[in-house]
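Instructor's aside before we start: the two examples that follow are unrelated to each other. I chose them only because their records fit on one page, so don't look for a connection. First example below.
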Amino acid sequence: MNRIPFIPENAPFTAEQRMWLNGFLAGVFSNANPPGASALASTLGLDAGPKTPLVVLYGSQTGTAEGLAKKTARVAEGRGFAPKLVSMEKFSDVDLTKEQNVLVITSTYGEGEPPDMAKGFWDWLKADTAPKLAHLRYSVLALGDTNYAEFCKFGQNCDERLAALGAKRVADRKDCDVDYETPAAEWTTSVFTALGNVSAHSGTNGANGSAATDTTSEGWSKKNPFPAKLITNRRLSAEGSGKDVRHFEISLAGSGLTYEVGDALGVFPVNCPQRIGEILAALGCDGEEAVKTADGETPLRLALTQHFDIMKPSAELLAAVAQRSPGADFAPLLDPARKDDLRKWLYGREIIDVLGGLTAPFTPAEFITLLKKLAPRLYSISSSLKAHADEVHLTIAAVRYESHGRSRNGVASTFLADRVNETTAVSVFVQPSHGFKPPVNGDTPMIMVGPGTGIAPFRAFLEERLATGAKGRNWLFFGDQKRATDFLYQEQLEGWVKDGHLTRLDLAFSRDQAEKIYVQSRMLEAAAELWSWLEAGAHFYVCGDASRMAKDVDAALHTVIESAGGKSSDEAKKYVERLKSEKRYQRDVY
């Protein structure tokens, strides 16, 4: 029950004033003690009672989990808790054996791994020496992407391990896909309802707001994207390349939007008309049927164009089709014991392939409820605002391939490459990066490993350093398939080498010789110098594919430290961990 402050009789107010103030304070504090109530009580010299400590522990790779953690802390403060926001890389700043309440908000990176900042925490938590936590109350919000097999795996691991150590789960874990706002809001409500009886200030009305519906931010955002103009669409890969890599320039003029190098740009795509036509034909619809969306009643064709993911089938759609068509090829694979078989069957298939086996079509209203929302895509920014005022540049490979007798294409990449023109707005927002930035000190050396489109943030880093006059040495490892067709930004990079801005450029074109050569191969060849740069304080960066390239580069880094640095395997591992803890080893991988 709330402990409501009151104006004592000896206070310097008239009886009428005291009655009004007491009524006002009672109203404020009965509303779950919203933000500002405690400050008001403090200003008036009143005692609003003790606050209950709460740790909000987060593991973030791109900044989404960190943003949610900050909002959750604000909600907690409004509920009368005393929140302490802690990143997993600084988990030792809190002693979980002495805490009573902890909320864990974390993403999963790659194939079920913890974010880079969370690896030390996970090593500690999963160790046999981890302490018992029977006194601890907790809940986990897991962020992930169902395009990956190990969806939300790290959050699940944290949840299971905390329970194994005796901690009490006060609210069920919530696993969120890229469209996380609604489930995150539900989790916030359930958590603070469960924790409500703990806090001296907790009311009975549930959480006063939610982490996912915070509306304090102003201007253009994910919830209110800016309608930008695409001013440049230039192909970077030459004729004969096996890829279609594009350089895009988007105008931010008039938006007031700013970004820092290392940030990402969120792009809301529009679905391909051809794919929409195929789905409408499979449903036997003309597209004019009215369906409900977040914008109200909308024609089905428009809803499929702007609001829903029409490519990747949801679990709900698969189950609904299997129920109507038990003979469908994938129906037996929905058994949880055969999830690996289902994943293999789905590889290279889309919603249209699933609808092909449907014997009883869905109504438009039914079909819409089985789709996921169309989510924005995040792309590493490849420019510096200091070099290109009011512009943001992207480096994107347009995804196109054949699979199971159909042509396939990436939703956002081909939207930008093929379907945006002078009259088409591109809805965008800036996604800040909290752990992928060039050194603050411009004299610090940088080593950058960015094959393919992984070069994007490093073009931005180099533009930024040139614009600011930074004197630190710069070393780039770049690779792709063929030098003649896939040397992205060749003229700009070679120009930087010539004028000394790019101290060293090591290239690895895998298909220009019989034996494939990759960026990690070049690292090993330059082991001695690479080691000397690290010892001189260089920061080491990696951008690109998480499943193969980033792992191979990490292994090569360990080998360089062992061979050139004369370290044992364990010593090399500790050296790399120190680089990470000092934020000298940063990755933007996907």
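Example two begins here.
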Amino acid sequence: MFEEKNNINTDKDNENSFIGADGCHPSQQSSFFNFIKKIASSKYVRWFVIALLPVLFLLKFPVDIVDYDLWWQMALGKYYVTHHTLTVDHSIFSWTPTDPTWIYNTCLGSIIIYLFYNYMGGFGLWLMHGMVSLGVFLSFYVFLRLLKQRLDINSVTMIAVIAIGCSPACRYYKPELFSLLIFSWLLFFFFYVKVSGRKFLFYIYPLMFVLWVNLHGGFVVGLVFLVMAFLGEILNKIFFPKESLKNETLIHLGIASVLSALATLLNPYGMDYLISTYMGVTSKAYAQTHNSYISAYASLWSYLKNIKIEYFNVNSTAWIMTVMYLSLTVVFIYELLKKRSSDFTLLIVSISLYWKGMTTSRASYFFLVASFFVVFFLVVYRLKLKNFSYKITVISLLIFTSFFMLTIYHSIRYEPNNQWFGKGIDDYAPLTEVNFLKKYKIEGPIFNDYVVGGYLMWKLYPDYKVFVDPRCGPYMNQVIPDYLKFTGKHVNHEDIRNFRGKYPFKLAILHYRQMNLIFDFLRSEGDEWRLLYFEKNAAILMHQSLLPIIKTEVGNVNLSPARFSKERNPSVLLNVFNFYVRLDPEAGRYICEIFKRNVSNFYKLKSELLVAMNDEIKAREKEIQYQQIWWSH
């Protein structure tokens, strides 16, 4: 456009009339935009961006350090394989009262995870995660080829943004990954039929649901999608018949949907599993427990208020979802104004999945995956905007570059302890603490916190059974309410004694997330509880009744802070510090020095945490001085 102006207006006297708002001569503007256009259209730049996509994915999906569901899922997988069965009585892992009728079915998903780990360790789990991610990518790529679109900077950027948005919910190694994979292909076949009209492809759905119902409970979302799609196409038929599926195709969609629902009966529990799933989804008590206690079920709405780089993962998911939703809204309005038509299916699916994803962060990936298909279907197929302006490509390139740099920055400055390729998968689990119990075979039963219970199921069953674990469901009638009431406040000697009257445990293994509870036990009146052992992630406490039978070598175990002199992980050192400083401020000071010496200076929070650690040491020293003065008087 600028070149044409330069060719037409050759009169030197008229040149000033074409000076740009930025003071640049049009020939300068033309050179700049030509340069940008050349970059945006360069095949080398395109291939460079494509090559960076797996790098971005690797950085955004390090080894998970938060979710303990992996361990109890593998415990189930091991049970299925070693007992040659696809069913399990979930009460066998617990010594506390549980509901033996509770049904949870991830038999195929748990087996797959167990086998990958059993044969290849943490690398196997990373490989499994990569294979699932590759499967999702292929669904995107094949869909682009269906629309005669190549993998360009725009599509790569959108895939990258979706990967970043999915990272908080999809970084975990557990059966939920298979819901991500199957849902993406469910969408692919739906849009494939809308584009090609090959209605018989809908009959792939029942086969998919036979697998899905035995992999993960996310099949429920798949069924809901089919219902929304069918209703949306009926509305299309009524209001915008030119945009709807043909009558015959719609009938086949309905039949395939019914067959898909029937296919979910092909699970080890039959109709009982579906009834149990429905009861769990609709249970207010179950929902309240999950929403208030488990972060995976938390809302994302609050993250739209504040943007903090510390919470880059969750913040980015909330904003990516919202910007995508608003962008889709603009496209819907544009289509309505231009073509006087719309697609009710896409509207219903987009609104429903966005609302659900923002309300329950664990479900956020459903909307993100769906948005890829909806955007390209609308823009390329419905609106015929196949050749995007180079300006859009430039914007995409800027977005990709920004997210890539932010990811690198966040990884270096806020997550220096990240590991990849499955390495160190159990570094954040109480591995050493559990091995201590296995070595000395100390008498139980064990009281454990909610989170660590999943790992105990994996490592200690059948030698020890758990008090509670993240499965939650078997304990809803009694144990979970009692546990939440007990751990939801500071407890005293009387609280502990009453709790033990109902649940007579002699050992307690508590993750450092329950630091206050650990010291409530140790500082309760009567000195009934002793510190037996502690390591990087948890502490083991014992009741005084075990003292006569504790072997001498157990009491001589090294608990010195010097054990952590080579530790570099700031999270581990901070946990250990918070434990030691409550026992002895000098031991806390020793850990503080290790933190100062070993933790990388690139860690953004290092200085802030060092100040807080020193303040805590001083506060503990003053507390001890006050106690000494009080006792002296």
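Confidence is low (pLDDT under 50) at residues 1-24.
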